Here is the input.
Amino acid sequence: MKFTYEELVKVTEAKVLQCSNTSGSLSISTDSRNINDTNVYIPLKGEKFDGHNFIQDAVDKGVRGYFTSDKTKIFPAAKFILYVENTLEAYLKLALYYKEKVNPVTIAITGSSGKTTTKEMMASVAQEAYKTHKSPLNHNNEIGLCQTLLSMPKDTEVLIVEMGMRGLGEIELLSKYSRPDIAIIANTGTAHIGRLGSEENIAKAKCEISKYLHKEGTLFAHDTELIRKTNDFEGETVYVGLNSPELKNIELNQSSSKFTYKNYTYELNIEGRHNIQNALFVINAALKLGISEQKIAQGLKKYKPIEKRWEITETQSLKIINDSYNSNPESLKAAISTFLSTQKPPRLLVLGDMGELGKDEKEYHKQIGEFLNGYENVMLITVGDLAKHIAKNTKHQSVSFADNKDVAKYILNNVEKGTTILFKASRSMKFEEIIKELNQQ
Here is the structure.
């Protein structure tokens, strides 16, 4: 997306500190390392960086003009200098301005877990009927939202944005600068409870997605008592859950799922009741878009898990399921349940630390160990100081490691050929290190 100088000033309500040339159209850049005279530079601030420190670099490379929230950063070689109080807010305003020019139907998706899978499923379905643009992986914060909106093709008909959060107020900000027509709250759980303090605060944060949802729009929310109690959206809300009387004939297989919903049968190339839950949100939103059941079914069947989300590979002796993109108590229990109900023995769980669980982190890991006691024929390896509490509180025989160093070696020397292994942990555990070592054998 390119902006005229006049649009830059008007949309951001900037104060002009210097101007000698207003000609042409310019694209936005937040990276001074890759910049030229077709760009306007927006310096962003983060916890560990300040883009204002690189304004001179951008000017030296010939950038046409730049924004600043620091009036001491004046470099006369720039053709124009625009002052705003908050450069991130200016970036967000420009992104929303472009989004409203394109005017796609906008679907916003959040949740303690499952939001990325739901987004990818939604995109797979929407593109069966519309020109669709979606958030790339991990682009679920303010900067990611801007990048998603500004990279949107002009002919986009459906825009799908993922919204993550680390505290109260963040999803409200994302909602403000995306103005969704449809919003989905996949679930609320204990992910980030260490930052937010309680499940009630997590639910409150997730429900912020409806703050700027169009009044004539629709909120699809996980059907739980907590969300029902927290939701204050005054427009249409549809609660979606596996307890729906319209959901029938669930079949869970080793690498697929099949179910009937609202008298139409759908199939997924991925197992797990939690993935059927994600699909129900997609079906309801797609029906709201006017997409036929046939095309919804086609899109759902085409969906494939993305990297580190139930990603299946096989070595000469082992079947590996990598679900180590992230982990929290709810997603871990769902993954364990799916794995142990669909995969035949011999099978092995390799479970690592779950992060950001706050003062009760040991208790949450203990509960996973107790949860495992409801199953038989479980082999268990834990990795990390917290995950060892899973092993300590289960009846199953287990081996615990402090880190990834010797896990692959132990598996290769001690685990029976033909075993299916589930890897599940928070991203910080870097389980890909273990998997890479196994795949090299």
